[in-house]
Amino acid sequence: MTIENQNMDQKSLRTVTGKTADFFELAKDCVCFANARGGRILIGIEDGKSFPPPGQVIPPTLPENVRKRISELTVNVIISLTVCTSENGGQYLEVHVPRSHAPASTTDGRYYMRISDDCKPLVGSDIQRLLDERSAQPWETLTTLGVPVERVDPAKLAAFSSGIRASDRVKPSVKEKDDRELLTHYMLALNGLLTNLGILCVGGQQDRAMLGTGPVIQFLKYDERNQKVNKLVWDDHSLTPMELIDAVWQEIPDFREHYELPSGLFRTSLPVYDEVVVRELLVNALVHRPYTQRGDIFINLRMESLEMVNPGLLPLGVTPRNILHTTVRRNEQMARVFHDLKLMEREGSGYDRMYEVLLSQARPLPQLREGPDRVEVIVHKRVLKPEIIDFISKADRTWELTQRERITLGLLAQQDSLTARELAGKLELVDIGSLAGWMGRLQKLSLVKQQGKTQATRYFVDPVLLQKLEFPKSTTLSLIEPHRLKALILEDLQRYPESAISDIHSRIAPELDRHRIKRALEALYEEGDVHYHGENRWRRYALGSE
């Protein structure tokens, strides 16, 4: 089954044949994929369908016609076309669009980018960002300083080579290369010179300082009055980006602090800031920053949170609302080095891992904010409900949950219950139809129950299971049925006539969403059980009709 996403699109055969042909629309989509990560366009499969119509035949001249028209309507877009036959015998045309190394546009000067499953136009400063990020030769592979390979730091090169050869993510054929060949393979050297990436990873201290944009990290600790009480700086360029991760983790003493939480007759030790989360924040800051821009990385440790501040904006196409599902590679070669050295997981899985760890520790989700010239990630240290830690652990041991199932279960355990739309929003999903992939087996295993249908569906952790796993939980009205909620409101108005909605809400069920109280009052008004006078915040409710 084909699903439209960041790397896949489907179009009717009518897009490129007959009087309804719209080659400019197809050209726009090709530009979108070329400026993002590349992708495929399946022509001949209608939206929402998995296969082309049975017996559909692609005209022999169509591939060449499509190739010609796209080349006429686009700049810096290269495509390849294949006629494919599906299981039902119908044919479709697959258009493969690789990622462009230079900014792609339509011939009339319009720029687009694929974001999630949509094609977005780029305007204003976004176009300049695209030009900066998509130069003909990436910053990593430039030999700006003209440093010969012979000036590598022998200790850095030895550490890099041994790390590559010890990694189970590297093919045997790569491990067999000598040190000089490894430098070329990982784009650390080019034509006898160290690239900018090579200087960062295996170059000497002076050459790293000469780059001007090598990473500098500052750690600042603040007390309860927001006064600075400690400062550590890594600014002498003696360490490679890979070494900085270990140095920061080891040299900041606050990262060794733990909570002691009661767990039956025993106590559970919980790190104030988990090593996985801290390292992932550092990796993101080092790998995804724009190295064409100066600026220090700040680690601000406050009383209730850890802030990681990185210079520059998010890669074009990534926003705080889609970062969980969208991956755009800014420094491709550095990401490959970090991955092969096992310093980061597979591409695009970093935030998933952070969500999983934080939710399993009953902590809030990380907050991502993008300023005019920086990106800030905030991780809170408070534990919302300590009992969730034991619950998630027991559920995982019993059913071996997937990462997505653990994330979804953690969210629902924290929130008591969530509507389908609320849950989709927290998971940064485009629509509620995508929830099935994140819900996984949770409902089949009776870990999660639901009430209602479509967008009114509410998901919650099964109360029976909570008791079985000895999960203490206070009584809540979040799952109260509509007719019972109406009865509570009528009883409250009998005691307190002429009440505002805020007063009713605070008295009967402050844990409920205010909109549920409002909808119940509107239903009671239509049924003639209550009346009101006044408008907006001066509206007051009482029993009976007017």
Descriptive notes:
The protein is of the alpha+beta class. It has 20 helices and 23 strands. The strands form eight sheets. Strands 12-11-15-16-18-17 form a six-stranded mixed β-sheet, covered by helices on one side. A four-stranded mixed β-sheet has the order 1-2-5-4. It has a three-stranded antiparallel β-sheet with strand order 19-21-20. Strand 15 and strand 16 (about 305-310) form a beta hairpin. Helix 10 (about 275-285) packs antiparallel against helix 12 (about 350-360) and helix 18 crosses helix 20. It starts with 7 loop residues before the first strand and ends with a strand.
Tags for this model:
single chain, 546 residues, alpha+beta, Methyltransferase, Cobalt-precorrin-4 Transmethylase, Domain 2, Heat Shock Protein 90, six-stranded mixed beta sheet, four-stranded mixed beta sheet, 23 strands, 36% helix
Give the arrangement of secondary structure elements:
Elements: E1 8-11, H1 23-35, E2 39-43, H2 62-73, E3 74-75, E4 80-85, E5 91-97, E6 105-106, E7 111-115, E8 118-122, H3 125-133, H4 154-166, H5 172-175, H6 179-185, E9 189-190, E10 193-194, H7 196-202, H8 205-210, E11 217-222, E12 228-234, H9 241-251, E13 258-263, E14 266-271, H10 275-287, E15 297-301, E16 305-311, H11 332-340, H12 350-360, E17 367-370, E18 374-380, H13 387-399, H14 403-415, E19 417-419, H15 420-426, H16 435-439, E20 448-451, E21 458-461, H17 463-468, H18 482-495, H19 501-508, H20 514-526, E22 530-533, E23 540-543
Parallel strand pairs: 1-2, 11-15
Antiparallel strand pairs: 2-5, 3-6, 4-5, 7-8, 9-10, 11-12, 13-14, 15-16, 16-18, 17-18, 19-21, 20-21, 22-23
Helix pairs in contact: 1-2, 9-10, 10-12, 12-14, 18-20
